[in-house]
Amino acid sequence: MAVPRSLTALVGAAALSLTLAGCSDPPIGTITATDGTTVQKLTSPLSGTCHGFGQGVTAVRNNLLADVVLHHGPDCTDPQGAETFYLATNTSVEDASEHWLSFSIVS
Predict the structure, then answer these.
(1) Which of 19, 43, 47, 90 is the most buried (most CB within 10 A)?
(2) CA 102 to CA 107: how far, in whole Å?
(3) Which candidate, 32, 35, 34, 99, places its Cα nearest to that of 72?
(4) What is residue 88's DSSP assignment?
(5) pLDDT tens, 46-59?
(6) pLDDT by residue (tens digit) across 7-30?
């Protein structure tokens, strides 16, 4: 039995899409964070994973070619009542009353 050409093309396109999705490059650039005394700099962190700051930071500069979400918990979660903070590419935030412990990359 012959397989219709349109079905073959559809299956091929789906396979190519899945292959390309698995080969995505990490975001290029840096995240710079500070608690006022110590500066942390992460270069080209991997997408799809949680990145910890190690200690609470109060200022973050996003120089990645991707947006990030800042979290109050160490494992990219937030305690009840705490809100995440969306930080677009090439922007920064500084707030002495906030302490972010981790971030994730928006994909």
Answers:
(1) 47
(2) 16
(3) 99
(4) -
(5) 999 999 998 899 99
(6) 444 445 444 444 444 455 678 999
